[in-house]
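> run fold Sodium/sulfate symporter
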Amino acid sequence: MGTDGSDTSSRQTQLIQWGGMIIATLVLISGVLLPTAPGLEPDMQLVLSIFVFTIVLWIAKPVPFTVSSILAMGLLFALGTTDSFDQAVSGFASELVFFLFLLILLGNTISKTGLDERAARRMLSTQSTPFQSIRSLSTNLFALSFFMPSAVARAVTFIPLVHRISDVYDLGRKSNFEKSSFFILGHVNPIASMALMTGGGMAIITSEIIRSSVRPITWVEWAIYMIPPVMLLYAFSAFSAARLYPVNNSKTISDSKATSDLSQSVTDNENESQPWTKDEQIVAWVMGGTVLAWVVGSFIGIPAIIPAIFAVVILSLPRIQVITAEDVQSMSWGILFVIGAMFSILEVMETTGTLDFIVQSATDLIPFGMMTLWQSVAVLFAIAIVMRSLFSTASAAITVVLPIVIEFGSVLGINQFYLSLSILTIIGSTTFLPFNTTSVLLSFDRGPLSIRDVFIFGCVTMIYAFVVVPLAWLFYWPFIDSVL
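> ok
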């Protein structure tokens, strides 16, 4: 039975891969050979066809991410949408690519030195259950978001920990526990970053656009306006992660037959203090200093990548060597190539006016003059969601979408400040494909999630955002305005 099931799964995977390859090829050929569509320039049609071609390859995965990403950038140059290959690979000049590279290296040191086991012992007891561990994971992630302003950094740190805890409960790599945990790491975790102005790129970008286009806003004001709605949205989403795939709430560690070192240490030494190794102490101090530098740097303007660079350098020094050449070689390079390729494509779409064409075409079709206020707001939310699905990060989506939506708010007489916070919440809660959010891409790559899982739970968090935003808009934000 097991072999038959494996063969069936393999055939389905191959069917999806070949189907994706055929569809992607047809899209590309159509974009190259068919006459230019009305309103489009030839370069726009070519870029759109390359964009869709690449997305289909990434979804179906007939070839590794690295190969399909290199192919996409090669097509940008070969089809003449860029003047040089340097321009076609310009996405790799993005800070995010290198920041992610550094964060993955730092995150791997947590597992390599055994700090994930130590953290797990603090999160678990002999009477812990998988459901309690899910709740502990979500609580710790939200608390950590106030000190580590990067959802990617938090995800990278906790991914090995989730695998270790799963081993403790003897649940396996594709259990409901792991699916729920990776939903929290990928989809729910970034929601916490919206609570503070310095919580992540999308919050920082939104605050700057609000300052320049709407009104001044301080760090404290942002926290007052956003922490309660974000907490509510985060709680709804985390609870659903454990309910969509039900997690056992009766099996304890003491019931497990697992033989991992972590299971043994939790069971036998629950109340004993284990001595820290030299490597554990070094990594703990370096990671603690890095987090502190991120917090302080968010106030005085130090880019988040600078502390990460110094942390990796320190951990690579000859007398330390926690990070080695082997660690770099064994990295998941596919994710980095996906991010770099997506940024390259988006940059070409911007320079050719393709993004402007998409936005203008969508807005020209909408009769705002015949709509009520809330109908107009709902349509703006829908536009934001559609545009969000085109971008690999929420920060990039907000950069393009928010100024346009604010302009609509001005023309239609909608509260631009409330609208800006709402768009941030909607975009930050919406992920339809793994490539839309870096933390989801990490969870998809390292966890048991499928494309279908990612899409379904992305819809769940989006629906919750549509519940929380009206509550904040109608009741909480007006109350804060009256108090302040």
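The CA atoms of residues 463 and 475 lie 19 Å apart.
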